[in-house]
Amino acid sequence: MPVHFAFPAHRQTPLCAERALRRRAILSCVFLIIVTAFACVSGILSATAASTLSFVIVPDTRSLLPTVLIMGIENGELVGEIRGDVRLFLGDRQIIPNGSGAFRVPAGELKNDVRTIQLPEGMHFVASKKGKRYYSVHSKQAEGLAPKNRIYFRTEEEAKAAGYR
Predict the structure, then answer these.
(1) DSSP for 112-155, written as a single string
(2) pLDDT tens-digit profile of 103-132?
(3) d(CA 129, CA 159)
(4) Contact (Cβ atoms closer than 8 angstroms) between residue 142 and residue 126
(5) Burial level of 81, CB count in 10 A (0-12/13-18/19+)?
(6) What is the largest CA-CA distance in the chain?
(7) pLDDT at 13 over 70
(8) Cβ-contact 134, 165 below 8 angstroms
(9) Is 64 left (phi over 0), alpha (psi -120 to 50) or beta?
């Protein structure tokens, strides 16, 4: 037969419970004081170590971004200014600015409108959708036609049959 032992329940008196709460509160405060003191000492030590380093602040005088400013074309010359470290080329020729960054170069290369048009195979005549005349694909007039408006013909008869003269 098993034997059971009955122990009286441990009950704290209200006075003991109050002392235990005070003890916990005091220990918590002591812990917080120690942690705070450690943090302060660490901060002071790191600030002291950092203060032994010396820094020199130098203003940045560089321009924000390399820039090419084109003022326009004056008397047949391209006029502008280069700011910062940038290279500017007009065709194959590099533009070298003066000491202040300004430049002035002949703008002739910019005035040429170079168009490369792929001719459909076997086509010898061309007309504009907006015009009334047809031209040889190798003529000066054909060069002036906008690529999006071109209509091609193999023969003069096809062009005439389409209403062009």
Answers:
(1) ------PPPTT--EEEETT-S-EEETTSHHHHTS-GGGEEEESS
(2) 998 887 676 666 778 889 999 999 999 999
(3) 12
(4) yes
(5) middle
(6) 130
(7) no
(8) yes
(9) alpha
User: Contact 119/142 with Cβ under 8 angstroms?
Assistant: no
Hey, what are 49's tokens? 């170590």
pLDDT digits (tens, 9 = 90+) for 45-88: 776 665 566 778 888 776 568 889 999 888 888 899 998 888 88
pTM as predicted: 0.37
Distance CA 104, CA 63 (A): 22
Q: Name the token pair of 120.
A: 């459909």
For 80, phi then psi, to 5°, come to -170, -165
The residue written with tokens 């009955």 in the block is 6
Per-residue tokens: 113: 């409108």
Alpha helices for the chain (secondary structure H): 14-51, 108-111, 140-143, 156-161
Token representation of residue 8: 């009286």
